[in-house]
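thought: fold this chain, then report.
action: predict
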Amino acid sequence: MEPRTPDHGPGRLPAGTEGRGAPQDLALNATPVDTGATPPVRPPPPPSGRPGSVPPKGPDPPGRGTTRPDPAAPECPAEGVRDATERAPGTATDRLRYLEAATRQIARGLDQDETLRELCRAAIPTFADAVLVHLRDPLPTGERQPAGPLVLRLHSIAQGPEDLVTTAPPGSGDFGQLTVTGRFAELLLAGRPAFGDAPETAPAVTGLLQPVASGPAAPPPGRRLIIAPLYGRRHLIGTVALLRGAERPAFTGDDLLVASQLATHTAFGVDKAVLHGHEASLADALQLTMLPSSLPETTGVRLASRYLPAAETSQVGGDWYDAIPLPGNRVALVVGDVMGHSMTSAAIMGQLRTTVQTLAGLDLPPEEVLHHLDEQAQRLGSEHMATCLYAIYDPISQRLLVADAGHLPPVLLHPDGSAEVLRIPPGAPIGVGGVPFESVEMPAPTGATLLLYTDGLVESRGRDVWTGVEVLCARLQATAAVVASPPLEMLCDTVLTILDHGARDDDVALLAARFDGFPPRNVAYWFLNPEPQTAGRARQLTRRALHRWGLDPLLDTTELLVSEVVTNAVRYASRPIALRLLRTDVLRCEVGDDSPQVPRMRRAQAGDEGGRGLFLVDRLADRWGATRLSTGKVVWFEQPIPEEYRPMDRKDSTDARDPKDGDAA
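observation:
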């Protein structure tokens, strides 16, 4: 081929110094894209790759051409990457020095793409003029051998001493894809590098080099090409093609060993990155499955939440939140944080969250929930500690009951737009053991918003916790000043703007609850002594309340169901029975007594005198259930209210609760 002046534009290999021009048959079909990485400063390459060549003493002065090295100048020892790139690895000593520096450079890669970029930078221009990396599609993971044909897909291309590394050209599609079969596949699976003119590699050379071929059918470069398999710890993960230009000496047999070492260290780095990414994705999926997929829709409170994983770590944390419906339209609001960032932290978080849900089902007070949670954490191991805040909101009494185990205090945004950090006695973290917890009861005004959060929201490397809490309060007040009673979703998004993304290294869990309350006009409740005539008294009170609410179509069914449930409570109760009716989109009836025995439905035999009450409830009610409490149990059922009979927004001055209707406790 007649020599031509090399083109330095995109798509060509730039020329080196003193006649080391790039091969004219290596042209990219796409303009390289700058990856944003700052290329290291490299000295001018040696005049040739022949063994025994002497590197220049230093860079040429500006504006002058390349000078030939002084034959009498002593050879300087190579140190690090800079010295290794000042000479082509011609002698055995040069190769060892080069490999030492190159493998250190490859090992600096933290992920798959960075590892491959470091390979290209280590190989060019010292060892090769161009590098093509093909990865297996899909990349194998795990122990099992991949099934199906061996498919290689172009991943990246590097050319020239300027370290121009680019991914596969956009839209290349099948252009950079190659299905490998026959002897070439056997060669790769055996982990052996080969020259481009080897009988096993020759049929696949055209497909591998198609992205850099200047013509539709460029001739194979022979021994100016080495194809080395990227063989990881268990599987073949791809290939690396190393090319030299026409004016540079061809590869030798010793260069096969150098290429094999470069490929091996690169493959281990890629394999580790793929495995780490696979484990990180599993950990992320594990943690997300442990968080609530959706928040409950309960009358009297609206909920919204946010969760953000740590910004600068691939390891998951132990932050969590939860909202658990309780009997009587109450709701438990929970937020917690397991110390540490690891799979273990996520697993411990899942166990603690499950424990909290179980304890909440027993309707224990907050301090009791934290006490039992602390015992469970100690059983899991003394090294596992967590913080937790547990609150119960009652929309009927409009009260809030809160207990804290070493967690940050919640913030209450009042209806007038002021933000208040609630004063909660701080208990010891979960897992310490032997420390009592204390609950605090406080008003929860209608229209107020309670925010529970983890320390990742307010703390960063450049901001302490309490400064972050002050910033949070200021942001809430500023938002409320612009939009009165801001929507919860907008409020959560606004709160997240206080994050210091550049210095954040912890998870963020946020739970917001807007207190709507429960109108007293939609509640009727009584206390009834456990006497034989109590069932009839309960039917009279129920009829009076439903008539006042305009729910006459539900009278017969509701009276029958109330009579059956109250009769069952009278049978076991030793103290007054609580009967409560709640009117929302459904009519809910709750009957509570002090007996811990929860009724179970059974099919009565022909001669049995009882056992049919719950069967009727199951048949006639839309939903029903029984909840064991710390002081007894509650049996409840619900009936749908037709649309035309549902409560309106108008104010009703009549309270459904008539004091003379209740019997003395």
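thought: worth noting. The first helix runs from residue 80 to 84.
final: tokens above.
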